[in-house]
Each structure stands twice: as structure tokens, then as C-alpha cells.
Amino acid sequence: MSPESVRSRPGPVSAEVIQLLAVLPSASIVLSADGGVLWASSRSLAMGLVRRGQLAVPEIAEIVARVAAEGTVREEQLRVRRPPLGREWLDLQVRVAPQDGGSILALVDDLAEERRVDAVRRDFVANISHELKTPVGALSLLAEAVLSASDDSDQVRQFAQRMQIEAGRLANLIQDIIDLSRLQGDDPLLRAETVNVDGLIQRAIDEVRTVASANDVDFIVGQPCWGEVYGDPGQLQTAVRNLLANAIAYSPAGTKVAVDARRTEALIEIVIKDQGVGIAANDLERIFERFYRVDPARSRVTGGTGLGLAIVKHVCQNHGGECTVWSEIGVGSTFIIRLPAHGAGLHSRTSTDEDVTDVHMQVEPEVLT
Questions:
Q1: Do 101 and 242 have their domain in common?
Q2: Which among 55-59, 127-131, 285-289 has the top mean pLDDT?
Q3: What phi and psi, each to the nearest 5 degrees, are found at residue 103?
Q4: Which end of the chain is less enclosed by CB atoms within 10 A, N or C?
């Protein structure tokens, strides 16, 4: 049954009530005393709760029947199979109440998203506690070692250096947590401005150039794309810098990182290609998760927090874009940031169909030889 046929079915549902129910976030259904559907919102139809003028979920129909018989309000949480195939499960909060004129109102909320957010929040708190425990514990042990070796200046110097490393790691972790928390509740349009992509890339490279030199990693920058994006320059620079820092951390000495930018129709693509160790196929789907590390042992050595790529993901999403990755073990990785382009860009360098199809080769291999 189409939404129009359900809404146009005759019944004691006033236009005012329909207007009110239509704006509610809950899936709303108005029923007659015998369980027939008088009106159903588009959300209830999308969830498959109504079919052919009847409730498609027997458990909800039972609640409606009890409310019709008793005349009392009922509220229950249900786990039911999703109509019509029943291959998926729905976790529902159902509230059913009798109305004047003999009709019955059912409001249904899907709890899956709420529970998913709660689970993510619990995992985040647990992960933060675990991640903070490591450097804090290390600092405590090193402080004890300094006290016990107070008469040995060489030992004190060695422990002090280790303390500096752990303190830096702790500071980086705290800063990444702050950045990620701010991104999740931030609207980049509040501080948006036109950002030149070539300048954005150059500033991000300047931020990590010292680390790259220390690791004997060189940068190769492609031709200017003359493109612009609209957004928060600080967030965008953080995203590019994180990808560059990630490429440096996982690249052997003597290798190169290529950075290129180009325009494809209405998008700006920033491509960062390295000659690093690469990422296994089974890890690619998870690398943007918070605190997920492909190589935890290497992350401890490089000081990685496991939040850098999660921050990149949120920055791209906040700006209406995305970040994708191609990688192969022993070959390297290619990360591509795609953002909506701002302005026509008369001199923009555009990519060809072949560039778009074979995204992992957008930075030519001979550039990295």
C-alpha cells in the first residue's frame, strides 16, 4: 500500500492531528479500535510497520488490542523481526494510547541508533582510560627509577629523556582527544572561509617537514591545481597534516611521499601517496576507527595515538566530503581527501576519466622512483 492510500483512507483523523504527528521524530500510526490503520507517517511505512492497511508487526498489534480493551496507556520495548522478510531485527520503543473518538495512537522509536551511540560512547571512555593508563604508568615508573638512581647522573639523564618522550606522547593523546571531541560537535560553517588548496597543502607540509627530515623522507608535490574549498581552514589543515604525518611514520628511510591535488567536476581531490609498509586488506575497513592501530608495536615507537585517521574522517564529513584509501602490503598507501570545490576555478587542473577510475594511481608511480 502506498503512503498516499494510507493517508487518504477515511477515518477520524483531523488535519491538525496529522500535521502534528508528521513532524514528530517517532514513527506514528493512528488506528481504529479493531486495529485497522487510519493514518500512518512516512517513517512508519519506511520501517515496514504498516502493510495493506494493517500493522505488519504482530507484537505491536497485540499491544494495540490490549489498549483498545483496557483504555489505558501502554509503553513497552520490543525486539522484533523487521517486516516483510524478517531477516533483520528491530529494537523498538512502543507507546500506545487511546484517543478521543475511539481511535488509538501508536508512537514507535527505533532504539538501534541510540544504543549504537551509547555503545560507541562506552567504548570511547574505555579506550581513553586504557590509552591514558600506559603513558601515566610509564611516567610513574620512570619517576621511581630517577629517585632510585639519583646518584648516577647518566642513569638520571637516560630516565629523564624517557620521561620527556612519554610526556610528549601523553600530551599528543590528550590533544587528539580534545580535537576529536570538538570535531564531533562542531559546525565548520561557523568559521568557514574560502581556503586555497595549494596553500593548504604547503602549510601542512611545512608543519611536518622537520619530522620528515629526521626520518629521511622527502616530499614530492604535484603541479598547482588552483582550486579552492569552503570550510574551516584549521580543521582542513589538521586533516592533511595527519595524513602526511601518518605517511612519514610508516615510510622507511630514504623513501618519498607524493602530494597532489586536482579538480574532478565539482570536487577537489587531495592525494597523498607513500612508499610505506602498506595496509592489509582486512585492516582497511577499520583504520578510520578511533584508537584502531594496524601495528600497535610500531605505533608505540612512533608515538601514534590511534586517533589521527578518525580526526581526518570527521573533518571530511563535517565539510561534506570523504576520505578513501587504497593500499597494498609492501607497496604503500594512497589516501584521497575529496571535498566540494568552491567557485569555478578557471585555471583548475582537472583529472581525466582514467584518473577517477584508477584512483590509487592518481600520483604517477614514476614520480616516486
A1: no
A2: 55-59
A3: -80, 170
A4: C
- Whether the pLDDT of residue 303 is over 70: the answer is no
Give the relative orientation of helices 112-148 and 153-184 as an angle to the nearest 10 degrees: 160
- Give me the residue label for grid cell 592525494: 271
Burial class (CB in 10 A: 0-12, 13-18, 19+), 52: exposed
Higher pLDDT, 341 or 174: 341
CATH number at residue 180: 1.10.287.130
Helix (H, G, I), strand (E, B) or coil at 25: coil
Show which of 86, 110, 134 is a domain's final residue.
110
pTM more than 0.85: no
Domain identity same for 325 and 206: yes
Residue 289 burial (C-beta neighbours within 10 Å; 0-12, 13-18, 19+):
middle
* Residue-averaged pLDDT of the chain: 76
Cα–Cα–Cα angle for 60, 65, 52, rounded to 5 degrees? 60
Residue carrying C-alpha cell 532504539: 111
Q: Are 60 and 50 in contact (CB under 8 A)?
A: no
Our count of domains for the chain comes to 3
Measured CA to CA, the distance from residue 48 to residue 75 in angstroms comes to 20
User: For position 220, what pLDDT does the model report?
Assistant: 92
Note the pLDDT tens digit of each residue in 7-54: 434 456 777 777 788 778 788 889 888 888 888 887 887 777 887 788
Do residues 154 and 254 both lie within one domain?
Answer: no
Distance of alpha carbon 159 from alpha carbon 152, whole angstroms? 11
Last residue in a domain, options 94, 110, 126: 110
β-partners of residue 101 are none
Q: Express each pLDDT in 343-368 by its tens digit.
A: 644 444 545 434 433 433 344 433 44
How buried is 303 (Cβ within 10 angstroms: 0-12 exposed, 13-18 middle, 19+ buried)?
middle
pLDDT at 122 over 80: no
Task: Residue 214: give the domain boundaries.
Answer: 188-368
Q: How far is CA 270 from the centre of its chain?
A: 19
Contacts of 240 (CB under 8 A, 6+ apart): 200, 201, 204, 270, 272, 337
162 Cβ neighbours under 8 A, 6+ residues apart: 138, 142
